[in-house]
Design brief:
Blueprint: E1 8-11, H1 22-27, H2 35-47, E2 50-60, E3 63-74, E4 80-85, E5 91-94, E6 99-102, E7 117-119, E8 122-125, H3 135-143, E9 148-150, H4 157-175, E10 178-181, E11 185-189, E12 192-195, E13 199-201, E14 207-210, H5 224-233, H6 242-245
Parallel strand pairs: 1-2, 8-9, 9-10
Antiparallel strand pairs: 2-3, 3-4, 5-6, 7-8, 10-13, 11-12, 13-14
């Protein structure tokens, strides 16, 4: 890391628990002031480490039917410094295959893009899993100053095998950012298997560390000098036609 005294540990989406039904998912959720987050605050302070908890089931005080899927960042003093609530929910109801995964059945959609946070390893942007399929979000975060994009995930096995690596490398290349993607792995219950392959990608698109499908730890140093070199040698930001992009409204032209 850029600061050899302080590191950041990244945990995947649903790092607090995975349940196999909506009732338990909602019932087991805690507020960000609950015991789970408090315990991680103590761990961070005791070990002088930052923690990225990539997907906490956050209970809502006024809603017993839904929760937030929340990525939180805790600093080495045990303070919660950022909370991002997932804005793109993974909904799939495929009649042909019989696969139904509807995150919106029990998760409330987030409404805010959280600006990147200054950390010992660089300016860190918070996202979650399915967010990686929407490059608009990563471009906005890059324009906000992001040097590191994060995609903690519980990617399904089938989509992971096809899209996981290529999308993470694409987000790194097009934004000239590091990408850190902690990932759930293996079979969680009869209904759910995650792809795994936690990965760290550098701003040139090279995979600098990764795990296999089994539980593991991937480690890498964040080299901000490399990041600046990549951006200087390939100055894409100078060439963006934001004067035209602002006209896009996603409506079919006639």
């Amino acid at each position: 890391m850029t600061n050899p005294l302080i590191a950041i540990a990244f945990f995947p989406e649903a790092c607090d628990y995975l349940a196999d039904n909506k009732k338990d998912i909602v019932a087991m959720a805690e507020p960000l002031t609950g015991q789970t987050v408090e315990s991680y605050k103590e761990i961070a302070a005791k070990n002088n480490i930052w923690l990225s908890l990539g997907g906490i089931h956050e209970a809502l005080p006024d809603d017993a039917q839904k929760i937030y899927n929340t990525h939180i960042l805790i600093n080495n003093e045990g303070q919660l410094v950022a909370a991002y609530r997932k804005i793109h929910l993974f909904d799939m109801d495929n009649k042909d295959t019989g696969v139904r995964l509807m995150e919106s059945d029990y998760v409330m959609k987030g409404v805010e893009i959280v600006p990147p946070i200054a950390t010992p390893i660089g300016k860190l942007a918070l996202s979650i899993c399915y967010d990686m399929r929407f490059p608009e979000l990563s471009l906005i975060l890059r324009n906000m100053g992001a040097q590191i994009l994060t995609y903690p995930s519980a990617f399904t096995y089938q989509t992971g095998a096809a899209h996981w690596e290529v999308m993470l490398r694409a987000r790194a290349i097009e934004n000239q950012c590091y990408v850190v993607a902690a990932a759930q792995t293996g079979a969680h219950n009869k209904k759910r298997v995650s792809w795994g392959h936690a990965m760290i990608v550098d701003p040139w698109g090279a995979v600098v560390a990764q795990c296999a499908e089994k539980t593991g730890i991937a480690t890498a140093e964040i080299d901000l000098e490399l990041l600046e070199k990549v951006r200087k040698n390939m100055p894409c930001e100078e060439h963006r036609r934001t004067d035209l992009y602002s006209k896009l409204d996603y409506q079919e032209s006639i």
